[in-house]
Amino acid sequence: MSEQERDPLAEEPKPESEANPSEPAASDVSAASDEYPAAHEHDEHDHDVLADVAESSDPMETKDLLHVDFFEGTWMRISAVVIAVFFIAVVISAFAVGFQLPGVYERIDPTTLYDEGSPWADPGLRELAPGKYELYIRAQIWSFTPNIVRVPAGSEVTFYVTSADVQHGFKLQDTNINMMILPGQVNTLTAKFKNPGTYDFVCHEYCGQLHHTMYGQLIVEPEQVAETEGETD
Ligand SMILES: [Cu+2]
């Protein structure tokens, strides 16, 4: 970049002999530039940066051009920490706390639910081993079958749910059991019930006029009571 291009405000110096006495002499050039200090400084700055890049043979010397603002850098660090915390929370909840996503157990033709031999024709609780149960629940407008289930405390229950007609929901109060129930699909989740109590379950996907009447109860009984009932029956 030539001297002229760099500072257009500065007048070209003329030889002393050609100088018009009414015009500023060469020695006054800097004084003329000082009348526009802002423009002058800006021009000088541009020149310095571009010249540095052009003259530098070492790419590492241009690193000052990639300046990250202090506050921007701070937010970048905070964002990285938040992502790391979320990732750790997901890993802990999946492996230590036992959070699960409802899994698609199988596909099923909803028109065959009432066929002979289908577990959905007469759904309910089946004991697989002491303290281990599987529970089939069929949803239809506007009820669950069965809608009252009793298990002893300490039981592990694997839920299988499907719908005979439209989309329903299955939410078991105070537990992680929360599933969408779709016709044609069997969803499954497993939960352990350590303490006696009554857990309500409701349909939480709007399914029509009497949706609000669609609920049931899982009753976890003290183990002794369950045994006593078993003996007297
Ligand atoms: Cu519903």
What does this protein look like?
The chain is of the alpha+beta class. A hairpin with a 5-residue loop joins strand 7 and strand 8 (178-181). It folds into three domains: 3-65, no CATH class; 72-99; 103-232, Sandwich (Immunoglobulin-like). The chain starts with a helix and ends with a helix. The protein is elongated and about 80 Å long. The protein has helices at residues 3-6, 29-33, 37-55, 70-95, 223-232; strands spanning 103-107, 125-129, 132-140, 143-145, 148-152, 155-163, 168-172, 178-181, 185-193, 197-202, 215-221. Bound molecules: copper (II) ion. Residues 168, 203, 205-207, 211, 214 line the site of copper (II) ion. Copper (II) ion (CU) is lined by residues 168, 203, 205-207, 211, 214.
Shape: elongated
CATH top-level class of the largest domain: Mainly Beta
Q: What hetero molecules are bound to the protein chains?
A: copper (II) ion
Number of beta strands: 11
Write down the domain tally: 3
Termini separation: 104 Å
CATH topology of the largest domain: Immunoglobulin-like
- Biggest sheet details: 6 strands, mixed
Q: Helix proportion of residues, in percent? A: 25-40%
Which blocks of ≥5 consecutive residues have pLDDT under 50? 1-5, 14-21, 23-33, 228-233
Tally the helices: what do you get? Answer: 5
Please trace the helix and strand order, writing H or E for each element.
HHHHEEEEEEEEEEEH
User: What is the radius of gyration?
Assistant: 40 Å
Please state roughly what percent of the residues sit in beta strands, choosing from under 5%, 5-15%, 15-25%, 25-35%, 35-45% or over 45%.
25-35%
SS-based class: alpha+beta
